[in-house]
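Intended use. Records like the one below are meant for learning the mapping from a protein sequence to its folded structure. Do not use them to infer anything beyond what is encoded.
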Amino acid sequence: MHIALYSPELPSSGSANGIVTYTRIMQAALKAAGHRATVFDRFGIEHDDGSIEQLGPDSRIAARIGRLRERIVGRSPVRWPVRFRHIIERIHSRHPIDVIEMEESFGFAGRLGLGIPVVTRLHGPHIFGKDEREPPQIARVSAARMEIERQALVGASGITSPSARLLDDTLGYYGISPTRTAFIQNPMPLSGTPWSVEGARTNNLLFIGRFDLRKGADITLRAFALAAKKVDDLSITMCGPDRGITTDDNENIKCKEWINKNIDKKIAGRIKFLGDIDHNTLNELRKIHKLQLSTSRFETFSYSIAESLAVGMPVVMANTYGLAEVVTDRENGFVAPIGDVNAFADAVVAALSDCERLARIGAAGRGLCARLLSPERIAAQTVDFYRTISG
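Structure written out for the chain above:
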């Protein structure tokens, strides 16, 4: 088969984005299984031999006139034009595409109009991923986005999701019953030397994610502050861009200011904020930290958790969509209710209280990753489903 996968950026960009990570791993797995896999974004193509074509915007007259009109009269904030048909057409002209796989965002998948089967993969439906607090203007845009995403799902040749609960909840929310759907997890290969409790620093937690509400950075720090009262040498390293926490008054507070306002000074000194760092540095940090703390309010499939499972690092995670559906609490990970600061703090204290058990749980998490998230397994499931789509 020839499968074309849309991504916000090409895999070679190294962007810290879950869809970029997914397409990189899937492209390699599909190629290894004997299929052609091409990844494209709005500006170019990455072939499965590693070669890249940068095409830029559509230069045809109709597209140029459309862009000129937008520059003159502007574009409505509730319109999201598809600007990459020319890229798909170029791929298809060289090697006919059997299936296009795209995320649901902005309903692009339902508006290609190229006669090629399109499967919508749920990477983060806006109905669940939008901010909890939205000013009226943003709420209007969100409502339009949710409707156009609904239309894309209705018109899709098939729908897949890395979360069974997310698939059911999305279809239920929109009240639609497509004939072809599949729960197929995201792939994650095992990597590197397995994490060991001996190599980890004493009681040092690791948070990987944006400092914002969606990633639950505020929940992490409040849970850390509670746990730190019971574990004298507890510290935490925060890794990720500082987007700020939006308050009820729509004030955006950055990490340092938020800590000063909400965390006791004695405990605040044990918080280290590194900001956005590269993937290799993250892997090194995993080796020397005892526990990852992930308190997201929403996830479809957390690659930061999957990457920790892949090296056997124990994780305390929120009961969101995705990996929390397959992790068994205190067997191959730790799971706490979304937003429950006390439960997260208790889980951290319990995890650190028994290093031998922690090591067993980390190893069991790696075993879970090997069994369920093997790229070979996921690629085979994907191809089997796509054959039903392409005929």
